[in-house]
Amino acid sequence: MTLVSEFVRPSLTLSLSALQAHSLLGPCPLYLHNSRPQLKLGLGIIANAHHSQVRRLDAYLDRLPVLSEEPSEDGIPEADEHGFAVANAFSAPRLDLLLHIIQSLGTTSSSQPLLPAWRIRSLLTSSGIPAASNVVVREAHDDDSKSPYENEIEWLLVSKATIQLHGVILNTLLDQIIPLSDGIWYWDDVLGSYSYSSLYAVQTSPLRLWAWSHDVYTASKLRIRAGSLQHAPGELVDSTATGLSQQWKQFYGIVQDSIRERSFANIQRRVLSPVAFCRAEARRKQNHLKKLREITASGLGVLMDEGLQFGPDDDKAELQDHHDLKGVVERSVALMDMVLKEVSSLDVNIGDFEDKVFAGVEEDPELSVHLEDSTATDRPAILARRLLNIMDKTLPEHLTAMRTLAKDNGRPATLVRYWLPAAIGLLSSTTILRILVHRKADIMNWFVDFGATVRDFWFNWVVQPTEKIVSTIRHDKTSEIAIMSRDSLKADRESLERMVVDFALDKPHYATEAGSSLNDVQVAEIRGKVAEGDVTPVLRAFEKDLRSPFMGTLRGDLVRSLLIQVQKTKVDLEVAMTGIDSLLKSQELVFGFVGLTPGVLVSYSILRYLRGVFGGRTGQRQTRKAGKAVRILRNIDRILSEARPTETNLLSYKDHGLLLCEVHVLRNLVDKLMPRGVAREFLEDLGDLSNMKGIQLQTRALERIRWAYARWLK
């Protein structure tokens, strides 16, 4: 056991207990982990279907018994020598290289478990398996035969490469289906409105004119060549001598015949109006996109449901020998090859496509059951070469064909859709430039005035009111609101007191009933009454002189009493103004905010508008994403409602593929619509929705998503 522990590579992750049991208790298979998996490896998927499938298949392979015991010469395994055989096998540098490549092909990242196609090809080529023959020469071995351990390691490497390529193809099909919906919606808009149909006819008119001109040119060229071959050289010389006008007449005649022939060939264009013809063309392209979308979805469903179906408890695997994982890998590679070759064909319907794919897999000449002259050691090399052929030829040809179909039947190019406004802008550019040059000074003044207006508005309606509010909060004397000066009322009141007191002293009979001179107490009493607004002595004199105004004016005190009352009126007015002034001072902060409010509202409105124009529409984007999620749920509901289940109450391949596309788009919206904790639960429900456990369970999962996450999907 010391030799075994010394030579077995750590990268194998072989358990020591397995080696001991194998060498001491007899022959038993060696595992990459301690035990077989007891869970079912179905192709039930979560929202990111292909990534989940790749991770689970890769983890399943890591638990499989990939190493067989090495038999002795007489075919009977020898327990005592088996441990040394394992050590000798794994001491070879080639096996060490293969194990490192297997580790590179593993899914070490949960977020990005897929390797790109070029990386898979590089690892597969560097392993040397595709170039291997029946006999592999190794420096560490004297014999020329490949050891069973090396053969099993090669099978493990090819299987992991198949899983990675399977995920790449699923990604490719998924990325091709989703953009097709945009083209279908575009043709819906064109067909849904006569105005849009007319606009489409105008947009594509140069292309139709070019195609018609090219057809006429080609037909005329063929007619001219045919006519020149029928004439002898002498006739050509005579025709040249007839003159240039006759030649031009013949040329015009040929062109007119070609145009007439094209007119009869395209009788539909003459019967239909240009808009009706464009609508028919749009309807034809839309039907092609729908058919391409359905066939691609069917191919995606076939690969998801039938590809790499191996697992101890998998129902589909039990129909075959689910222990023969090598046969499953071979059939899966053939299935990927057939799907890529047939999925871009629009000449067949869905049923014929599926039958053709499955028939092609069963009759595939490269399967081991059809290769009589191949040995077990050749199968990894044959399979590796086929994987390289898929990556080098089949997959690029498929991508080219799909791009061509999407381009021919999708919405027109940007140049075709916008050539008319571009041409109008180009033709009017000189006029616009001339206007700009002639009105340069006015335009500059407009910009200067606009800048000055913005600046004055900002300082006068935002900055200064803000400064006043700050001064009011600090009780700054310069910020107080006042209608009248602070000491004005005091001076006028004291003046009124002096006037009334002097009048009372001069005319004591108006101040007292006895008419005697006033003492200090009476004067003080009069001052107190004047402070309260009582000027009775003056009013008595005014009442007496008013009986004879003329005599009162000349000989009495009418004018004096009248002037004192004017002063009294002034004092009363100032008292009222003082009350108003006190009220304004108590609400000074309120008036400051009232003065600031218009400037703040205008500034906020302008800022919000500019933010919306230049890409800050966070709320609108959130609303659009929620609306898109609702439409996706509606599409999923239609898929489940219109689906024709199989005998096992499962979705068909086409419906399953369409469901995966919608779930994939919905998954990408989760992080931007919901909090992290809610998003995790949402992904669990998406897993229930996409798992192939029966249409009823999927319908219940859809209903649960609708009511549980309605708050974020409004």
UniProtKB/TrEMBL annotation:
Main location: mitochondrion
Keyword Transmembrane helix: yes
Pfam families recorded: NCA2
Region forming the signal peptide: none
Matching InterPro entries: NCA2-like (IPR013946)
Compartment list: Mitochondrion membrane
UniProt-recorded name of the protein: ATP synthase regulation protein NCA2
